[in-house]
Amino acid sequence: MFLKINYDGPIFAQYETVSKQLDVLLEGETDAIANLSNASALLNQFLNEINWVGFYLMKDGELVLGPFQGLPACFRIPVGRGVCGTAARDKETLVIADVHTFPGHIACDAASSSEIVIPLVKNEVVIGVLDIDSPNKNRFSEEDRRGLELFVTTLMKHI
Known about the structure:
Strand content: 25-35%
Distance between the termini: 21 Å
Strand order of the largest sheet: 3-2-1-6-5-4
Largest sheet: 6 strands, antiparallel
Helix content: 25-40%
Shape: globular
């Protein structure tokens, strides 16, 4: 049974806790969709000031909507387009303080103002991205980037 806990202490320590919680939660499950679903739910209850969290998965050369928490979203994103497609193409985390200034931003939710996207890389190949949106500008810090990259590293052990 999953019990919601209160996270406290420095932000990176909180990310370490949620990453350990993810590792235990996914232990023994081999289905990627089930694991991505629980990962998005865990992040949704952990993070504050967000309006969307979820995954896009690489299929036939484009990103296709996967498990998520939030309002309905764009179904497909071409690699190299928008924040998600650019992060997938470049294989690097993107932290965007104001999405309205990002060239080619794809607005799935008009309320989103900032975004962080972390590529999911397995055997040097991008298999998808973790995408998190916030209605607040400048929501995601360097500590968030480091913490979410740790979370994705933990997740990838179970994908």
